[in-house]
Design a protein that fits this description.
Pfam families: Peripla_BP_6. By secondary structure, this protein is α/β, with parallel strands linked by helices. It contains twelve helices and twelve strands. It folds into two domains: 192 residues, 3-Layer(aba) Sandwich (Rossmann fold), CATH 3.40.50; 146 residues, Rossmann fold (3-Layer(aba) Sandwich), CATH 3.40.50.2300.
Length: 415
């Protein structure tokens, strides 16, 4: 911008001094523009958007240790895509979903993400599976300007962002965060049952460490010392040493930073030793397969949870219809994982619709940060984001396995 004190000659022309000053002013202005806050410079891709479709990608564990999560999640995502497209798509564009198998291996997740970005030209990564796998590929996505939306991990790195790092604005999560949900569940259980010697057994990766952080933070807030802290390697199947240690440390509450097979293995081992102790799982243990596969071994298990699990014989309305459609489509009962996968795509479609017919990466980012609420059919807490908060909710439930199914114990918990 030219200085306000421009000098003119007798006939209105700018003098040489005035021109020099104006040039200097423009140069200063250009420098100032390059020093604007980094948050204004977030790069968001427009790849994957055409007049007829929106291409989104995901990587799931379809063949590895948590395929009990990956397969139903991908089924739920496919069901949502079919539903959205059958209703006319997103402002006239059909969604095309590309699914890659990571096998819950960080290296494979990186290769899958590179393929989805470079060959498939995805607009967004939606519902990708696992803390270690999502973390390994995250920078590749952000550097390419690809939105990382609603991954199947509630680790803090998936939603916390530094305003000074503009590409981190591309991260959004709608799952219960492990730290906060663990804190809320531990607080409730400690106060309700008056436990004195809480312990934890956690998976030695990003997921497990988040659960450990929540456990430690809540005990510190309550001025309680943990009686025992033990871990296991991802994919382990023998928990005899960990359970024996916790038993010898006289634990009265065992928090499990585990996923699906491990709670069953740990509780089976405890029963072999004749050890009666209360187990509390982090949110990934709150799935139908745990009581279905664990049977009597997991009766009484508590877990942190996001929403009540619907069962076919008790569900009503849209949820009952949804369960029937899923079973007809995939030949098996729907579960928690399928619901989460379905919701990931439906949430994407909601905000893409809000972004308008002239969809761009920036308009999608604006829609996500608008504060508009997405409400699902499963009575989950509303999904809502803002420019400063990319986590949808921290409201937690505690559920318990009774008679082979999950039953609500307490909802609306915080710490």
């Amino acid at each position: 911008m030219a200085p306000s004190f421009v000098q003119h000659g007798p006939y209105g022309e700018e003098t040489t001094m005035s021109k020099s000053l104006r040039t200097f002013g423009l140069a200063v202005g250009a420098v100032a523009l390059t020093c604007l806050p980094a948050a204004a410079q977030t790069k968001v891709t427009n790849e994957g958007i055409s007049g007829s479709e929106i291409v989104i990608g995901t990587h799931q564990d379809l063949s590895g240790p948590v395929k009990g999560w990956g397969v139903p999640v991908s089924n739920g995502m496919k069901m949502a895509v079919e539903e959205v497209n059958a209703a006319g798509g997103v402002n006239g564009r059909k969604i095309r979903l590309v699914v890659e198998d990571s096998g819950y291996d960080p290296k494979k997740a990186v290769l899958a993400s590179q393929k989805l970005i470079e060959r498939d030209k995805i607009f967004a990564m939606v519902g990708a599976m696992g803390s270690p796998t999502v973390l390994a590929a995250q920078d590749i996505l952000l550097d390419a300007g690809v939105l990382q939306l609603f991954p199947l991990t509630a680790a803090e790195f998936t939603f916390k962002f530094d305003p000074a790092k503009p590409q981190e604005r591309l991260k959004f999560n709608n799952l219960l965060p492990y730290v906060e949900s663990t804190r809320a569940a531990v607080k409730y259980m400690m106060e309700w049952k008056s436990f004195q010697k809480p312990c934890i057994m956690y998976q030695d990766d990003e997921y497990g460490k988040n659960v450990l952080d929540g456990f430690n933070q809540q005990l510190t807030a309550m001025k309680v010392q943990p009686a025992s802290i033990t871990s296991y390697k991802r994919g382990a199947s023998d928990f005899s040493a960990q359970v024996a240690k916790m038993k010898s440390d006289s634990c009265d509450l065992v928090v499990l930073g585990a996923i699906l097979r491990e709670p069953i293995g740990a509780m089976t081992e405890a029963k072999k030793l004749g050890w009666e102790v209360t187990f509390l799982g982090a949110t990934p243990t709150n799935v139908m397969e745990v009581p279905m596969l664990g049977k009597e071994a997991v009766e009484g298990l508590y877990a942190a949870a996001l929403f009540e699990i619907p069962y076919e014989d008790t569900a009503k309305g849209k949820v009952k219809d949804w369960l029937a459609t899923y079973k007809k489509t995939f030949g098996t009962d729907a579960n928690t994982q399928a619901i989460i996968g379905y919701n990931a795509v439906m949430t994407f479609a909601f905000y893409a619709q809000k972004a308008g017919k002239d969809l761009t990466g920036q308009k999608m980012l604006d829609a996500l940060e608008s504060g508009d609420k997405f409400i699902d059919i499963f009575n989950s807490p509303p999904t809502k984001f803002s420019k400063t908060d990319h986590l949808a909710s921290t409201i937690t439930q505690v559920q318990q396995v009774k008679g082979g199914r999950w039953v609500l114990v307490k909802d609306n918990l915080m710490f």
